[in-house]
Design brief:
It is a single chain. Helices cover 18% and strands 36% of the residues. The chain is an alpha/beta fold. Strand 27 and strand 28 form a beta hairpin. Helix 5 (99-106) packs across helix 6. The protein is globular and about 70 Å long. Residues 1-28 have low confidence and may be disordered.
Length: 471
């Protein structure tokens, strides 16, 4: 995404406001973000809570209180043990109904529910967990609902949650993949800072694998500004990857594992200040026989100290600043995005909730009026599927004005991006509308199109430039 997104926006639009504008809107103080590692609220953690009557977060409460936003990774689901979905000899982490309230009282703004235990209680557990968290005003982030957006002062965060480790219900993602690239692209277009939470690596291994390193570089190249990892249950040293902070593993935050190495944790401590993102780490340790994290001081990592990526400005289209509506507790785990149009410092309009796959700039009318390419998931009578459909919009005083609504160009569509020269590069499935067969996703074709004012016309892709533009 980084290959196209910002360059296209600068070429086709006027990105008014800029990163410095974001820092001013955020106020004189920096925006501080904290991210923790794995959180367990059953087994011996629950036993310790009942015995002591205290919160697992009493030692970090002053730290959390000084932050603007706190996120973590919740390992398990809310529901009864009887709903456990067993896969071989895998463990099942079932939490009581008060788990969400505990997280809220502990100071959490968000928890990711994309890991190998999020599906321990099947679909019913996923739904119950999301609803309970939302009711407690703790934002749940699954891959299916990614990206989530939040607004802190004048800064919009986009959060994408990924798991590369399959759970009892088999759900997992792949990096690289079109599905992950699309979520990163959408977050990168609409957010000033993109946070990727990823479950990966090898348990109890205190260094990142080659696969983790390759995935980290791909995530950054496709739009991630911060990568926070978990699953190994031990700390892996963070690094600066292609100019962006990557915390390969934050280790355990609240967990009952007994190995000495699993008692150590790391809290990613990131600030947005003077148009830059800067991160450090705060070391924690739980004493023997306890799961309560106690801060031990700053990490002071030299690589992170020199890693300060710029904060992006807002997306401005034809004089309209476009922002995603921030998450609200009424959403549960629903997918989709509501777009807002701002002018003169005030919101002028909102769209309905749209199952938005990606949003791209670079198209324009013959008079130079900029257009937006939106990929949305909708049903169609043509193929009887809920699938990715391309739409072209103009932005006006009443919101998005549809210029063209296609079913999927010439063939069923998987993905599409606008190339630097304004052409549309599309990745199609190998089947056709005459004989639709979604199982042909392993066979694809790439096509290049030009906007003609009424739709898209196929053009020659000399040199295969579209194959290089698509993820």
């Amino acid at each position: 995404m980084r290959r196209l997104g910002l360059a296209l926006s600068l070429a086709a639009l006027s990105l008014a406001g800029g990163a410095a504008g974001i820092a001013r809107r955020a106020g004189p103080a920096p925006v501080r973000l904290l991210f923790t590692g794995d959180i367990l609220l059953s087994r011996q953690v629950a036993v310790e809570q009942r015995r002591t009557g205290g919160s697992p977060w009493h030692s970090v409460a002053p730290l959390f209180a000084r932050a603007d936003w706190v996120g973590g990774n919740l390992e398990g689901a809310i529901g009864p043990d009887s709903d456990c979905v067993k896969a071989g000899d895998s463990l099942c982490f079932a939490f009581g109904a008060d788990a969400a309230r505990q997280l809220a009282a502990g100071g959490f703004s968000m928890v990711t529910v994309a890991n190998n235990h999020a599906g321990d209680l099947g679909d019913a557990g996923r739904i119950a967990t999301a609803r309970a968290l939302s009711a407690a005003r703790v934002m749940p982030v699954s891959f299916e609902a990614s990206p989530r957006f939040v607004r802190i002062g004048g800064v919009t965060l986009g959060i994408v949650a990924i798991t590369l480790v399959p759970g009892a219900d088999g759900r997992m993602q792949a990096v690289p993949s079109t599905e992950v690239a699309q979520r990163l692209r959408l977050a990168h277009t609409l957010a000033n800072v993109v946070v990727v939470s990823i479950h990966w690596g090898t348990e109890l291994q205190d260094w990142p694998t080659g696969a983790q390193r390759s995935a980290a570089a791909w995530l950054v190249d496709h739009g991630a500004d911060i990568v926070v990892g978990h699953h190994p249950h031990v700390v892996q040293r963070p690094e600066c990857v292609h100019g962006h902070p990557v915390f390969f593993s934050l280790g355990n935050h609240v967990f009952d594992q007994k190995y000495p190495e699993t008692k150590a944790g790391l809290i990613a401590d990131c600030s947005l200040w003077r148009d830059r993102l800067r991160c450090d780490g705060i070391r924690t340790r739980a004493r023997r026989g306890s799961a309560v994290p106690v801060p031990e001081g700053n990490l002071g990592d030299a690589a992170l100290a020199s890693c300060a990526p710029a904060v992006r400005g807002p997306l401005v289209v034809d004089g309209w600043t476009m922002r995603p509506a921030p998450w609200s507790a009424a959403e549960d785990d629903s997918a989709g995005v509501v777009l807002e149009g701002w002018r003169g410092g005030a919101r002028q309009w909102r769209t309905r909730r749209v199952s938005l796959v990606s949003l791209d700039t670079g198209l324009a009318r013959r008079d130079g009026t900029p257009l937006l390419l939106a990929l949305e998931r909708h049903p169609s009578a043509m193929d009887g599927e809920v699938a990715t459909r391309p739409h072209v919009y103009r932005v006006g005083s009443r919101g998005l004005i549809a210029m063209w609504r296609g079913t999927a160009l010439a063939w069923p569509l998987l993905d599409a991006v606008v190339a630097p020269d304004g052409a549309l590069c599309a990745l199609h499935r190998g089947d056709s509308f005459l004989r639709p067969d979604p199982a042909t996703t392993g066979k694809t074709r790439t096509m290049r199109y030009r906007w003609n004012g009424f739709g898209f016309s196929a053009v020659d892709d000399a040199g295969g430039s579209c194959a290089r533009s698509l993820p």
